[in-house]
Design goal:
Blueprint (H helix, E strand, L loop, with lengths): L1 E6 L2 H17 L4 H21 L3 E7 L1 H7 L5 E7 L1 H6 L4 E6 L16 H89 L4 H12 L6 E6 L13 H9 L3 E3 L10 E3 L10 E5 L8 E6 L7 H38 L9 E8 L10 E7 L5 E8 L4 H19 L4 H15 L5 E9 L2 E9 L5 E3 L5 E3 L19 E4 L5 E5 L1 H4 L7 H12 L3 H6 L1 H12 L9 E8 L4
Parallel strand pairs: 6-7
Antiparallel strand pairs: 1-2, 2-3, 3-4, 5-9, 6-8, 8-9, 10-19, 11-12, 12-13, 13-14, 14-17, 15-16, 15-18, 18-19
Helix pairs in contact: 1-2, 1-5, 2-5, 5-6, 5-8, 6-8, 8-9, 9-10, 12-14
């Protein structure tokens, strides 16, 4: 069905608007959609009245409306046109709403013509507006509800942000604590590494003067600006050698002292007034402890304003280790001096037999406690023969020196009864095995006799003798030797003989002269043979002492001197 209204003024527009609202209500259009429709139609009609002229409003329902709306339940189609606009080819204004349940026939909708009816129709439209407003109120309540939910959500988000911020602060604090702990661990590792390395340096030397010299080199400038080591035994009491009062207190009490204008608060360190020698400079005085009493005091000045407490603890520990190294070095030097003195006292002067020249050299080891085991001797037998011997007792120090003296005395006693070199070594073997089962020795004995043109010799685990003949040829006497003296084995050591012409020279020696760790002993024996062959016959005949020095110089040029050295040259003089 189709309804049409001509609109030329406001009254026509109001009637057309009311008719549109009633027709939409009759067609079952919902209040909200109905209000939108009437509002749209009213707005379009007001726009048309401003343009002037007569306008036509056409409302269509039914199949035409459904086809236009594209719905299955029905539609209401509104079109506003102007005859002039149609002639000009302008498109009409139109709008379509769905009619789900048409209630009445559109032809039954009455449009009031009087003012009272128009007012009643407007009141009816207001009822629709009220329904729309009620619906809008419900929507507003729903919006308020969602707004409150949004506010609560925002509050939750703010709380979450606060928690995240607190978690971030806690994480930053944890990271800071971790960095601090890592820094402290790295510093502790650095101190422990330095302490281990410095201890290795200090204990590597057996010279306490060297240890005292190295201590400042290790500490300056990282841990101290200056280091002064005061050893009591070296203090000669000369004027001008003043020490801080805190150092004297440390020496008397055996505890570390800190002298400064303000307390240092260092662990295990007592605070003292500033030193009168340098009041503006703090001083840390650490005693050098031993089992009985301190042997000295180390006085340090800080590299900066003061020491870190952990550095101070490390310095006290390093000083303690340095004191142990100094004490060990002193004990070692004392024992070494005793052993060397004893050994030199036991090495008697060589005899001067007719027709036989003798020259001996003994050099103690300069590194380690490898002193006291090497020895040489030469003496006459009752039948006119001359016994020459070079030996080496295993072990070092005083015990080896004492054992060497006992072997030397026993050999002289056995030689009084006569006997060849092999027989003498056999008796020495039995003597040492029963006297000191845990000590061993090596030895070589050579016997010269003025009436015998042969050399008799025997060796027990010792480097072979080297014989130079008058024509300058050198022979290494390496015939089968016996085993070491003192081993748990019964043995009879054999004698060996070799022709001996006037002008011949025999070299007896210990392994310290020829043996090197990286090369062994054979190359050294070859070097000794070459050096002995290089001498002119006149040198050996007239200056046997110089020849002995001439052998030592080239052979010891590459030696670490970590073992004793014995050399005995025996030269059978030629005819005048």
């Amino acid at each position: 069905m189709t309804r049409t209204w001509q609109i030329s003024d406001l009254t026509d527009a109001a009637r057309a608007r009311v008719a549109t609202a009633r027709l939409a209500a009759a067609c079952g259009v919902p209040p909200l959609e109905r209000t939108r429709l009437t509002a749209a139609v009213g707005a379009q009609l007001r726009l048309c009245l401003t343009k002037g002229g007569t306008w036509r409003l056409t409302l269509t329902t039914g199949p035409a409306g459904r086809a236009a709306a594209g719905t299955g339940a029905g539609a209401l189609h509104a079109v506003v046109t102007s005859p002039d606009a149609a002639a000009a080819g302008e498109p009409p204004w139109q709008v379509t709403v769905a009619c789900p349940e048409p209630a009445t026939d559109p032809g039954d909708v009455a449009v009031p013509d009087d003012a009272a009816g128009l007012a009643e129709a407007l009141l009816g439209a207001d009822e629709d507006t009220a329904l729309v407003l009620e619906r809008l109120g419900e929507q507003e309540d729903l919006v308020d509800f969602h707004r409150e939910e949004l506010q609560q959500t925002n509050q939750g988000v703010v709380a979450l942000h606060a928690e995240l911020d607190a978690a971030g602060r806690a994480q930053r604090e944890a990271f800071a604590a971790e960095r601090k702990a890592r820094t402290e661990a790295e510093n502790a590792r650095r101190r422990l590494t330095f302490l281990a390395d410095a201890s290795a340096v200090l204990t590597a030397s057996l010279d306490h003067h060297e240890i005292v010299r190295r201590l400042p080199e290790l500490l300056v400038p990282e841990y101290a600006a200056s280091v002064d080591v005061w050893l009591f035994e070296q203090d000669d009491g000369r004027p001008g050698q003043a020490h801080p009062a805190a150092a004297v207190v440390a020496a008397r009490t055996g505890r570390a002292q800190y002298a400064a204008t303000r307390p240092g608060g260092l662990p295990g360190v007592q605070d003292q007034p500033p030193s009168a020698l340098d009041p503006d400079r703090p001083a840390l005085c650490i005693p050098l402890p031993t089992r009985q009493a301190p042997q000295g005091v180390v006085t340090l000045s800080p590299p900066g304003e003061h020491w870190d407490p952990d550095d101070a603890v490390m310095l006290v520990e390093l000083t303690r280790r340095a004191s142990i190294a100094i004490d060990h070095a002193r004990r070692y030097q004392h024992n070494r001096d005793i052993a060397e003195t004893l050994q030199r006292a036991l090495l008697t002067e060589l005899p001067s037999p007719a027709g036989l020249g003798l020259a001996a050299r003994y050099l103690p080891a300069t590194h380690g406690l490898n002193i006291g085991g090497d020895w040489y001797d030469a003496f006459r037998q009752p039948d006119g023969g001359v016994i020459t011997v070079v030996g080496d007792v295993t072990g070092h120090g005083l015990r080896a020196a004492v054992m060497m003296s006992q072997l030397r005395t026993a050999l002289r006693a056995y030689a009084v009864d006569g006997g060849s070199p092999g027989r003498l070594l056999t008796r020495l073997h039995t003597f040492l095995h029963h006297l000191q089962p845990d000590l061993f020795a090596t030895a070589v004995i050579a016997r010269f006799h003025p009436d015998d043109p042969t050399l008799t010799w025997a060796a027990a685990g010792h480097p072979p003798p080297v014989l130079r003949t008058p024509d300058g040829q050198v022979r290494i006497l390496d015939d089968k030797p016996g085993a070491m003296l003192g081993i748990p084995l019964r043995q009879e050591i054999a004698d060996h003989t070799v022709p001996l012409a006037p002008g011949s020279t025999l070299a007896l020696y210990t392994d310290g002269l020829v043996e090197r760790r990286a090369q062994g002993i054979d190359p050294g024996i070859g070097r000794l043979a070459d050096a002995l062959a290089s001498f002119a016959p006149a040198k050996l005949e007239t200056d046997l002492e110089g020849a002995a020095d001439g052998l030592l110089d080239p052979l010891l040029s590459d030696s670490e001197r970590d073992d004793d050295v014995c050399l005995l040259l025996c030269h059978l003089r030629g005819p005048a």
